[in-house]
Amino acid sequence: MSLTKDTDGSLELGLYTRNPGYQDEEGGGSAADTIHADPGEKHESDAAEYTQIKPYAGMPKEVLLLYSSQARYRVPREILFWLTVACTLALVTLTVTVIVMSPRCLSWWQASPVYQVYTRSFRDSDGDGVGDLKGIQEQLDHFEYLNIKSVWISPFYRSPMRDFGYDVADFRSIDPLFGTMQDFEDLLGEMQKKGLKLIMDFIPNHTSDQHRWFNLSRTREPHYKDYYVWTDCNATAPRPNNWVSVFGNSSWTYDDVRGQCYLHQFLKEQPDLNFRNLHVRKEITDIIHFWLEKGVDGFRMDAVKHLLEAAHLRDEPQVDPNKAPESVTSEWDLHHDYTTSQLGLHDLLRDWRAEMDIYSREPGRYRFMVTESYDYHEVDKTMMYYGTPLVKESDFPFNFYLLDLPQNTSGLWVQHLVHLWMANIPKGQWPNWVVSQESLYLHPPPPTFSFSNLPNSPLHLLFYFSNLHCYQVGNHDKPRIASSAGQTYIRVINMLLLTLPGTPTTYYGEEIGMENINVTDSQIQDPAGKYNASASRDPQRSPMQWSGDMNAGFNNKTNITWLPVHPDYSSVNVEVQKKDEGSVLAQYRFLNKLRQSELPLHRGWFCYVHADASVFSYLRELDGLDRAFLMVLNFGKESAITDLSSIRELPEQLKVLMSTNQVSEGKVLQKSRILTEAGEGLMIQYSTLIHFNPNHPEQCYVSEKTCYLSAMDILYKC
Ligand SMILES: [Ca+2]
Ligand SMILES: [Ca+2]
């Protein structure tokens, strides 16, 4: 192609375009002024001539190329190019650094306490006296008020209620007592709208004897024949081995239809499933899928240590070898070498975890697993449920050690119970704390004295003997903390629960300080209580106290409640306490809010500072943050003065941010004289540039170390 100057001074663009906008500087030109822009024909004189041409809009590629090769255009262009490359690399590096350096966000089950709803007792919507799913839905605002996101609902599967729902007749349907599947879906939908997470109870170890599978198994239907653990036995003396049920007596029952004995580690109406059968495993996995598909956010896996039994069915060793075998009838008479924590148990849980992870991939839809296993004297067994760094299992196993708090209200005892978990938790795992639960009524037996199992530290040795003593005097605690520890301690225990590192579990009613009810023999509802009145769980299952209205607002349609309402309901109820700034409820709410908003409380270090017969004191701090919290909790029987002057990291003067005794709030205390009344808890906020944890690493714990960069207001791994 060639460019030719036309007689009017504009350029003729070969065969293509005419450019009237171009004017030669000298105002004209001849037909001989032809510029050869074809690269093949280009030469120096052309180029020199071409430089005289000014750029113009719409110039063709060839002209543009000639211009662009000039230094004044090329150099800025190259500078721009390399600048872009450098900026892109810097951005990529920054992004990778931020990703690598950022600590993991806390998941919903870490950020919020878990609130346990006992369905029968929370709220009765239809007036039949028993709480139900619609009732829970009616009270969802309560969780919002408390700033609680995670709600664990006790079983509502179809059940003959021999163990109040822990005997499931159909894992895929709702018991009519609690509502319908539509009610469940409405409840779940409403919870999701409010950002609440629903955790279901899951009961894999056994079914009800009314379950279809059991009926098919006892008639030897080929597919179902081995769904349960069957063995030959004598019909008149059906005890194929010495195994005993958690509820007492032999764990074997003879079945007339099949002519064999079946195993039940709990009630005889709760036959154990045979997890060595692959069809059973598949059934249970399908049920997990069924509920995850519905949208539930997690499972509390019930009684997991009982899932598998040794296939050889040999006798378990007796705790007292001299005891007559026929008098071995209690769970505590045997070492459960063959009926709990069997090889393969963790594989089952890991498989279920993997199934749940499939449903966890959507952002914000993490499915949570908590396991229930009460291995009181074998903390290492409990810790195994956390899994390993490479193979995940439960997010945490429930920590029941604080249930023993009422046995010996002292600062040292509380520190000991807390330390049992903190000293054994695998690195990087998330702690949790339970102080009350409806389903636990069985207590481990007095530990047997033995030189071989003496603890090796002096502190633990002291508690070993103190523990022996507690059991021996028969201080049998009851699950509601206000009743077992005493009303004096309810506030300080809530303060402990909400300021320890990890997830607290709150049993319904603890947030208002509900107490156990007295249940007469004729009023007993709990099947376990009918079997053994002292084991009844009824006292801690009384209806939730919502208001001073009829039936405490649990049921305002009829005058029926399945268990009596506590007589203190006119003063101990949600409505009254909402109006009182100093109430148990107000303090719970304040502490929970603080727990979720203050970095040291939910992500920071936890350090022991002091413990004595009355006081347990610890602090919460975060590297890089100059704000820290000192907790001074008096679990003793009398007031105490605590001297923390030896803790040089603390300022001389300490201002009380919150006290369980409102009169102490705002007080300025000397660190050498911190006064607390019995049952009083102080939260002291202070400013610091010197942190405690670097100088006392052996007294401090953090799940995942994180630092705060104040200049940018961000957290980073450090
Ligand atoms: Ca009802
Ligand atoms: Ca089992």
Ligand set: calcium ion
How many β strands by DSSP? 28
Oligomer: single chain
The average pLDDT is 88
Distance between the amino and carboxyl termini = 66 Å
Uncertain residue ranges: 1-37, 441-478
CATH superfamily of the domain at 401-429 and 441-448 and 477-503 and 597-718: Golgi alpha-mannosidase II
Largest beta sheet, briefly?
Answer: 8 strands, parallel
Per the CATH scheme, the topology name of the domain at 401-429 and 441-448 and 477-503 and 597-718 is: Immunoglobulin-like
CATH architecture of the domain at 401-429 and 441-448 and 477-503 and 597-718: Sandwich
Percent in helix: 25-40%
> In what range is the share of β-strand residues?
15-25%
Strand numbers in spatial order across the main sheet: 15-14-13-9-6-5-17-16
- The outline comes out as globular
Q: Return Rg in Å.
A: 36 Å
Structural class: alpha/beta
Number of helices: 20
InterPro entries: GH (IPR017853), GH13_cat_dom (IPR006047), Glyco_hydro_b (IPR013780), O16G_dom_2 (IPR045857)
Protein name: Amino acid transporter heavy chain SLC3A1
Keywords: Amino-acid transport, Cell membrane, Disulfide bond, Glycoprotein, Membrane, Phosphoprotein, Signal-anchor, Transmembrane, Transmembrane helix, Transport
Biased composition (Basic and acidic residues): 35-46
Description of the structure:
With 718 residues, this protein is α/β, with parallel strands linked by helices. Among the domains are: 3-69, no CATH class; 401-429 and 441-448 and 477-503 and 597-718, Immunoglobulin-like (Sandwich). Helices cover 27% and strands 16% of the residues. β27 (706-709) and β28 form a beta hairpin. The longest helix has 31 residues, at 71-101. The chain is globular and about 115 Å long. The two termini are 66 Å apart. Mean pLDDT is 88; it is low at 1-37 and 441-478. The structure holds calcium ion (2 copies). One calcium ion is lined by residues 124-126, 128, 130, 132.
